Amino acid sequence: ETGDLIIVLDEQKHARFRRKGANLFADVEIDLVTALAGGQVWIDHLDDRRLLATIEPGDVISPDHVKAIIGEGMPTHKRPFDKGDLLITFKIKFPSTDSLSPQQMSLIERALPPRRLQSPLAYREMEEVQLAEMDQARRDRMNHMDEDDDEQGGGPQVACAQQ
Prior knowledge:
This protein is α+β, with helices and mostly antiparallel strands. The chain has helices at about 30-35, 100-110, 135-150, and strands spanning about 15-20, 25-30, 40-45, 50-55, 65-70, 75, 80-85, 85-95. The protein has 3 helices and 8 strands, in the order ββαββββββαα.
């Protein structure tokens, strides 16, 4: 007896890849030296191939910079040999706090362009403040507050004063 064959696909989330159409998206972590000076990056693909991508010296990668590996995405519907692209978002791993000696910091400062200094004369009012670390407990409290605002419609809003 003849009839229709119905196939239902249930696409599951993947630990490393996201899909949009025929394109694949992945976050890849690289160290700061590779981001600044170039180097090679290994990417384990869905089909168990290991891709070797080269970041050329002089091609500085900033955090969340996106590059494409053309033709390494998913096959296109009805054209299995035409593939989408694999888009890589680079996540830069910075050295941890206190991991660099004063001598290393001095070398970095000499190697990189000078800091851009802000002139205090350019502003009528300036107040010096301290930057604090956001520990996990503080992040959790802030995320919980954001969820409460979403549930309650946001609460009172404050408008910026006109100058």
